[in-house]
């Protein structure tokens, strides 16, 4: 089955015996179905915010329609997250960089590299921020219960599952 334009010079829809259907625009295939899936050529705009699929593949980027500087970029062995410029990346070794395009590569280990005037990691437990690690050029601060919401806070260091150091709220 073929549906052509009024002049008969262009295909608009083609349906084959095997069930494949192809939609054309200006003589170019834009949507083609087959027994293995659907191929889309060109941009896809959707009015719904929901996609149901087991897997979605893109060539290189998923972006925000109204903000070209916000996107997820799939580069060779690297995923980049951008909000007005690259903000974070995960490389093929599992290293994560925030504020840096080159997270530290520790052979055999995964690393989290944070680049900024103040690097801070906050730990949230049961919807409450409980602990923080903050570093600047001249100091490193490890905070346990920084908002003093617990009465029996302590900091401990263990090696091989054996406690080696403990500091409680009395010092």
Account of the protein in words:
- The chain has strands at residues 2-4, 11-15, 21-25, 28-34, 37-40, 61-64, 67-75, 78-83, 86-91, 96-98, 112-114, 119-125, 128-136, 139-144, 154-159, 162-168.
- The chain is mostly beta strands and 171 residues long.
- It is built from no helices and 16 strands.
- The strands form four sheets. The chain has a six-stranded mixed β-sheet, with no helix packed on it. Strands 1-2-3-4-5 form a five-stranded antiparallel β-sheet, with no helix packed on it.
SSE class: mainly beta
Please trace the helix and strand order, writing H or E for each element. Answer: EEEEEEEEEEEEEEEE
Rg estimate, integer Å: 27 Å
Low-confidence stretches: none
Question: What is the spatial order of strands in the main beta sheet?
Answer: 6-7-8-9-10-11
Overall number of strands: 16
Mean pLDDT: 83
**In percent, how much strand structure appears in the residues?**
over 45%
Give the assembly state of these chains. single chain
- Main sheet makeup: 6 strands, mixed
> What general outline do the C-alpha atoms trace?
elongated
Q: How much helix is in the residues? A: under 10%
Distance between the termini: 83 Å
Q: Tell me the number of helical segments per DSSP (H or I, 4 or more residues long).
A: 0
Fold blueprint:
Layout: E1 2-4, E2 11-15, E3 21-25, E4 28-34, E5 37-40, E6 61-64, E7 67-75, E8 78-83, E9 86-91, E10 96-98, E11 112-114, E12 119-125, E13 128-136, E14 139-144, E15 154-159, E16 162-168
Parallel strand pairs: 10-11
Antiparallel strand pairs: 1-2, 2-3, 3-4, 4-5, 6-7, 7-8, 8-9, 9-10, 12-13, 13-14, 15-16
